């Protein structure tokens, strides 16, 4: 291998894209149309956020595919990078050309199917997956992709057996279960969905999404006695006011210091419009709130750890509860702040990365904390509601719920598998809370990397 290429590849593996470009410079000066050098340069520039500069290098690669030892494989490889860089049209043209040259290339079919499915062209993708399955009938991942495409195309009667076949071939790919259960619910087959959910929790005990579906489907099918331990709000949803941290005259002084820290946090921003759960124009979120922080955030993290230990002590696990018996021996806390100005709501959701979830209320508008809010059993505007599933899951049963009326200084903890959200509210004030997940040790670092990316 050319020395400059070897050095550039190593620097890319080391996460040093600029150093890779520097290593390539002499080779690019001698051979500006070297295919491998242009490919590495394109990837390095993209990783540096200079995607516009990457495209000319990638187009050189596209022009040279016929000079490569395997022109079809070369087209597929270049297409994959075009797709990664947000150029689906150029990726599609290369993949269609690859299929024209090698009509029985299962890899080209799958790559093109994935591209079209990502663009919402589910019916076209499904046709390609069907053709590929004729060549590779024992690929669990391919059956799963066919299920997703069929699901997206509205062909639920085809999606369900595709998901089932995927699980039969790759039982460890438990992510397929959520798609399968959603399809069965759309078809009005909750009993079949429950049977699969029970296989899922047996196969992956303690899996948060599996437990969420299991609880929902037990209620949906009328098996309330079995559902009761999973939705025992008295036992599983715990609230208390924290003690005033050391160094502050009272809880209000602590909360005002915490509020000022959150509002000045550099990561505080409105989530993107295409985010299905978090986007709201009045909402701002600061992720990674407790990463190496001092001051009021560090004191709040101490209070969170105390609350978690208190939760474990109060709920117990001696009876073998399916959630409590899987609590992590060692854990870490991942926290983020949420600021709602004037109005807002949070759609029901679960925290699949966590085990136990919690929320601390820093600032609450007067309209929410007022005695008349929720008086006489009425709706608690701006309340924390646990239990209610999202409408898109098509749960028809009247699922039990519990609403907690927030106040400043309140800490709430609950299992991550319980759907929860914020009751809509309007106010002249600002609502600030710090949400957090209790994760098995090591998972929080992975979660932080994913959030940063």
UniProtKB/TrEMBL annotation:
The answer to whether the entry has keyword Cell wall biogenesis/degradation is no
Its source organism is Kaustia mangrovi
GO term, biological process aspect, one: negative regulation of DNA-templated transcription
The record's annotation in PANTHER family points to: SUPPRESSOR OF RPS4-RLD 1 (PTHR44749), TETRATRICOPEPTIDE-LIKE HELICAL DOMAIN-CONTAINING PROTEIN (PTHR44749:SF1)
Kindly give the Gene3D superfamilies that the UniProt entry links to this protein.
q2cbj1_9rhob like domain, Tetratricopeptide repeat domain
Xref: InterPro entries:
CHP02466, SRFR1-like, TPR-like_helical_dom_sf, TPR_rpt
Q: Which residues cross the membrane?
A: none
Its protein name is Tetratricopeptide repeat protein
